[in-house]
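Page 37, continued from 36.
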């Protein structure tokens, strides 16, 4: 599936793999920027830098 997460400055991202946090960055092979507010619409709550990535699953 895909993972959604936030970077240190509040940018919302989505990636097909679970990113790893190294120092002040998330590391992953592929990611796309999402418009602000997208994560809340997808998972029903906001994320920030301190939160772990959330996996999106099919219903």
């Amino acid at each position: 599936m895909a993972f959604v997460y936030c970077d240190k400055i509040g940018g919302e991202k989505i990636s097909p793999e679970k990113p790893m946090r190294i120092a002040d960055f998330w590391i992953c092979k592929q990611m796309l920027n999402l418009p602000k507010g997208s994560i809340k619409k997808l998972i029903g709550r906001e994320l920030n830098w301190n939160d772990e990535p959330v996996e999106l699953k099919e219903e």
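Strands lie at 2-6, 12-15, 20-22, 25-27, 32-34, 54-56. Flag for discussion at group meeting. DSSP finds one helix and six strands in the chain.
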